[in-house]
Amino acid sequence: MNATAALDWGLIDTVLLDMDGTLLDLRYDNWFWRELVPHHYARRHGLDLREAQAALKPRFEAVHGTMEWYCIDYWSETLGLDIAAIKRTSLTEIGFLPGAEAFLERLERSGKRRVLVTNAHPTTFALKSEQAGLGRWFDACYSTHPFRMPKEQREFWPRFAAVEQFTPERTLFVDDSLPVLDAAHAFGIAWLRAIRRPDSSRPVQEVGRYGGIDRVADLM
Question: Which residues contact residue 133 at a Cβ distance below 8 angstroms, ignoring those fewer than 6 apart?
């Protein structure tokens, strides 16, 4: 694993990129789930915001890191809210992390195969892609939902590689989730980088054994 070695772009053919917290600012998602959804839940159930947040926190924690956590259909049914509709009212809050667009421009000129791999629900991905114009930067984009496994689970990666064929030892993968990077490492992806500051409004996070970068622009 070339987790901390300087990138040798001559040994990399494919670049796999996460979406939220890697390219797009995770500030939006944290605000959406910690404040906006609880606000709507509070209105529906006659609670104040703190009561709603306290009621929702254990429900979120119970499925964190699973397919349900990323599934807006699951949350719409569970909470009795139209999560997709709420997202549509807040699209202007979605934005790139600093330097992400410049990085994508340079990556486009590099000749590498560019693949987006996100745990976001297909509807969420479509809304964010439309707002941020993500699709134009990639040769292929994938949500993990059709694979029925999030990136955190090791079983996802063989399923993904059967559809999007790549050579693990000649692939760079960038994500902000350490469990996701652990699963990718177990699959054999050689070049791994962790985003230290996925949410621009929060302090940097520890990235353990992985080479950490504050933003994807640092890769170039």
Answer: none
- Asked if residue 107 and residue 72 are part of one domain, the reply reads no
Q: Is residue 111's pLDDT more than 80?
A: yes
Return the closest-CA partner of residue 98 out of 170, 17, 199, 174: 199
Beta partners for 115?
16, 140
Distance (Å, whole) CA 50 – CA 42: 9
Contacts of 216 (CB under 8 A, 6+ apart): 17, 22, 23, 97, 99, 100, 103, 174, 195
Question: DSSP string spanning 15-27?
Answer: EEE-SBTTTB-TH
Task: Measure the CA–CA gap between 103 and 194, rounded to whole angstroms.
Answer: 15
Q: What is the pLDDT of residue 1?
A: 55
pTM, full prediction: 0.94
Is 169 among the domain residues? yes
Per-residue CA distances from 64 to 58, 104, 171, 203 (Å): 10, 29, 27, 21
Cα–Cα distance measured from residue 24 to residue 11, given in angstroms and rounded to the nearest whole number:
27
Expressed as residue numbers, the domain containing 214 is: 9-25+96-219
Out of 92, 114, 146, a domain closes at: 92
Tokens of 123: 């509807």
